[in-house]
From TrEMBL:
Its EC number is 1.2.1.20. One of its GO terms (biological process) is gamma-aminobutyric acid catabolic process. The active site is at E256. GO terms for molecular function: glutarate-semialdehyde dehydrogenase (NADP+) activity; succinate-semialdehyde dehydrogenase (NAD+) activity. It comes from Octadecabacter ascidiaceicola. This is Glutarate-semialdehyde dehydrogenase DavD.
């Protein structure tokens, strides 16, 4: 398929490992376009030997990188950011081709991912230490912050660029090296980032992208005593498995796992704003984000009005190939995603939910699915407890604030939450009462490089973005100076 790239070299059928490029051959892994089923190309099927090679090279490269000045590292990252933005259109095209999201949304993701590189190019110079009044007259207490060392990263397919940028930028800013295993479904976006990182001047061996069997590569990464941190974004099941695999070598962990976000509309909300917020929080990326609203709670007095407004709005949004102009809903990533979405709808309707919009596979075929709104949804339905990861908005009815806060918190997950209210006292009360790492108040879009992204409970460990995102790649060293 001709993607019409200005710089065709960005779609490279090869992976950068330990400072060399390994070409894909006919035994490589095929990457397909979910909108058409077409094969886009191949990436090499790498395993134990190449992962070890990447880790060894990272160890060497990391020492030299950490020895450079923060300003020097900052300048390289800044060039990487500039190159990502200069190639935004091409990177967006590669992303749409392998992931399916509409081109405008894909280009938005490139800008969003690049913004983390820009932000951490700035934060690189702010890894301050402390001098603390000591415990003895002849002693001084210093703490400095140093890079953790070699970091392994494993990332998913829903944001093929941004999930990498959010990890790689703070890692390199801090002075770490990174060995990345991107999703097997979207490796070309990762490889294109590496091409530009090399052009920006990131030293050889500092950033490897290892494509191949996930479990094999993950095992080598987690077994290695050289790897001091694992940063993972994906499902809670795989995250928990990797957590256990990291135990013997006592690695630091950053885990961005599943969510089951509540989205609460109180009867004092601006309903039109709440509808706009729902469209963003629920339907962005076709419902395939870990911060997507999964349970929409609407207070009884405004339930019918909200359902009608939301249905009107969503019905007007077009579905199709992400390369076509004006498309809002692309395909789902694969057949398994379609099966899960359909099973949640079937389960809900069999227990009394009604379909206000959509409800079935789209007539376009393939993995396209109709954006769906369900009403009369209750807590016993699977959709109330499992992450749907698809374009289904289930509307639950509630009566009181206490009832809805308890319902919202009744989940093992704790990533994002949202609510709409114009009552300031309620805004404070509910923000404080929600057991989540993030709360969106009167907004459906919360993620930005300046803010700490992350969850509590089974949604993960650590924060990405903000100044805290840099901390996650630094160790504190205490230096006690005596004899003064
Ligand atoms: P999703 O449902 O978003 O695909 P996964 O947790 O299955 O979430 O996948 C996220 C990332 O984890 C992908 O890069 C995938 O290849 C990788 N992965 C899946 N299973 C394992 C495993 N056993 N070890 C290491 N990585 C894995």
């Amino acid at each position: 398929m001709d993607l019409g790239l200005e710089n065709p070299d960005l779609l490279r059928q090869a992976a950068p490992v330990g400072g060399r490029w390994i070409d894909a051959d006919s035994s490589g892994i095929a990457v397909t376009n979910p909108a058409t089923g077409e094969t886009l190309g191949y990436v090499p099927d790498l395993g134990t030997a190449e992962t070890s090679e990447a880790i060894d090279a990272a160890r060497v490269a990391q020492k030299a990188w950490a020895a450079r000045t923060a300003k020097d590292r900052s300048n390289v990252l800044r060039r990487w950011f500039d190159l990502m933005m200069a190639n935004q259109d091409d990177l967006g095209r590669i992303l749409t081709a392998e992931q399916g999201k509409p081109l405008a949304e894909a280009k938005g993701e490139i800008a969003y991912g690049a913004s983390f590189i820009e932000w951490f190019s700035e934060e690189a110079r702010r890894a301050y230490g402390d001098i603390t009044p000591g415990h003895a007259p002849d002693k001084r207490i210093l703490s400095v912050r140093q890079p953790i060392g070699v970091v392994a990263a494993i990332t998913p397919w829903n944001f093929p660029n941004a999930m990498i940028a959010r990890k790689a930028a703070p890692a390199f800013a801090a002075g770490c090296a990174m060995v990345l295993k991107p999703s097997e479904m979207t490796p070309f976006s990762a490889i294109a980032m590496a091409v530009l990182a090399e052009e920006a001047g990131l030293p050889s061996g500092l950033f490897s992208v290892v494509t191949g069997d996930a479990a094999t590569i993950g095992q080598v990464m987690t077994d290695s005593p050289i790897v001091r941190k694992l940063t993972f974004t994906g499902s809670t099941g795989v995250g928990a498995k990797l957590y256990a695999q990291c135990a013997p070598t006592i690695k630091k962990l950053g885990l961005e796992l599943g969510g089951n976000a509540p989205f609460i509309v109180f009867d004092d909300a601006d309903l039109d704003a709440a509808v706009e917020g729902t469209v963003i929080a629920k339907f962005r990326n076709n419902g395939q984000t870990c911060v997507c609203a999964n349970r929409i709670y609407v207070q009884a007095d405004v339930y019918d009005a909200f359902a009608a407004k939301l249905t009107d709005k969503v019905a007007s949004l077009p579905t199709g190939n992400g390369f076509d102009e004006g498309i809002v809903f692309g395909p789902l990533i694969n057949d398994a995603a379609v099966t899960k979405v359909a099973s949640h709808i079937a389960d809900a309707t069999s227990q009394g939910a009604s379909v206000a919009l959509g409800g079935k596979a789209h007539s376009i075929g393939g993995t396209f699915f109709e954006p769906t709104i369900l009403t009369d949804v209750t807590k016993d339905m699977a959709i109330a407890t499992e992450e749907t990861f698809g374009p289904v908005a289930p509307l639950f009815k509630f009566e009181t604030e206490a009832e809805v806060v308890a319902a919202a918190n009744d989940t093992e997950f704790g990533l994002a939450s949202y609510f709409y209210s114009q009552d300031h006292a309620r805004v404070w009360r509910v923000s404080e009462a929600l057991d989540y790492g993030m709360v969106g108040v009167n907004t459906g879009l919360i993620s930005t490089a300046e803010a700490p992204f992350g969850g509590v409970k089974a949604s993960g460990l650590g924060r990405e973005g903000s100044r805290h995102g840099l901390d996650d790649f630094l160790e504190i060293k205490y230096i006690c100076m005596g004899g003064i």
